[in-house]
Amino acid sequence: MKVILVTGSEGFVGSHLVKILRELSYEIVPTCYPPLRPKTGKHVPLDLLNSDATKDVLKAHEPDIVFHLAAISSVAKSFRDPPRTYSTNVLGTANLVTAVKNLKKKVHFIFISTCEVYGGGDQISETADIVLKNPYAVSKYAAEMVCQHHFVDELECTILRPFTHTGPGQSQDFVLPTIAAQIAEIEKNKRPPLLELGNIDVKREFMNIRDICEAYALSIENCTPGDIYNISSNTGYTIRQALDIFAKRSKVAFEVKTDPSKFRKVDIPVLIGDGRKFAGLTGWKPTMTFEKTIESLLYYWRAKT
User: Fold this and answer.
1) Is-above-0.85 flag for pTM?
2) pLDDT at 41
3) What is the mean pLDDT of residues 228-235?
4) DSSP letters spanning 235-300
5) What CATH homologous superfamily does 175-204+235-304 map to?
6) What residue spans define the domains of the chain?
7) Cβ pair 170, 13 in contact under 8 A
8) Alpha-carbon torsion angle 79, 209, 109, 75, nearest 10
């Protein structure tokens, strides 16, 4: 049985990925940032900024596959604290790669990057220009370069660039969970029936987290180390369209007010990918509709509110 080490297993994507990999009968080593160690389940504490500790964890578990998800993953957070974003996402990746290479064995290193490195556009393929518009994108592309540098030195690394995804468990640093959480509070009379949002005309894919993690699992056996793959549905929706669906499924009426102070310093109007390369190789395609994804967000936040 192959052993898979997952960094960031305590996070939104990591927790979903661990569940899917276990369903596929892999042996999982879920690691987490020590201060964020979950109260339930067995998680291995791992601070990627501590290079010696990182080497010790990798040596203790001898994984065959590493999924590297641990990161500062919010564009908004990256603007608030660029140095922490660079340190976590770049130095953390470098320390992990070094620890993997020190194992002196064949390991498939799967690095989860981001569509943000493209800087925007429609039907973006893997050959599109790199245009870095925020600290998060800068950090992820720099981490990609770390991986590619070591690939030349025999690291078996696959780079995945997922487009926007969401689902239960995602924090309110992201727009659709913010909307769902506010509606849940309005339904329980905990806030007035008003949503204050930034630019609601930006267009993103908003894929479901379950579909994304199933794609990640398919990359293990199907993707060629040394290559880059978009994980994309090829279809996008505006936040305005999402609000229409939220309104139909809300138990109460609400108003929407756009607040210019909530607009990002550098906004990307459209960010839609071309995922044909990965889909053609693996047969993957999203199965969860946009409407069902929004419903799942509402159910989640109603239960938490």
Assistant:
1) yes
2) 83
3) 98
4) --EEHHHHHHHHHHH-SS--EEEE-GGGS-SS--SBEEE--HHHHHHH-----S-HHHHHHHHHHH
5) UDP-galactose 4-epimerase, domain 1 (3.90.25.10)
6) 3-166+206-231, 175-204+235-304
7) no
8) 0
